[in-house]
Design brief:
Layout: E1 3-10, E2 17-24, E3 35-40, E4 52-54, H1 56-64, E5 68-69, H2 71-80, H3 98-123
Parallel strand pairs: 1-5
Antiparallel strand pairs: 1-2, 2-3, 3-4
Amino acid sequence: MAIKIRLARGGSKKRPFYRIVAADSRMPRDGRFIEKLGTYNPLLPKDSEERVKMDLERVQYWLGEGAQVTDRVARFLEAAGVKDKAERSNPKKGAPGKKAQERAEEKAAKAAEAAEAAAEASAE
């Protein structure tokens, strides 16, 4: 049985609240879980102590049992000092989209035309 430490969503529409749970990876996101390990309330300020609460002893136990953590929970554990910071690489995230690249190319072409026109005018 593959165990995951992940978030299970609660709260009403547009008011999210999450439980940090240890669950079988085959179960649905908000479905059955083995144990509740903590809570996460994204509506609270980032510096609030109430934003993320975890039972670190139980998290350590499940990690020892071979549980895998999701990306978001891994970030919580890194902030708590339980897990080493993983190197993340998403080189495409900072790259502009297709339309922005097209606009940049058009702008560069116009600038080149203007520079040529200025060079011809100064040569005459």
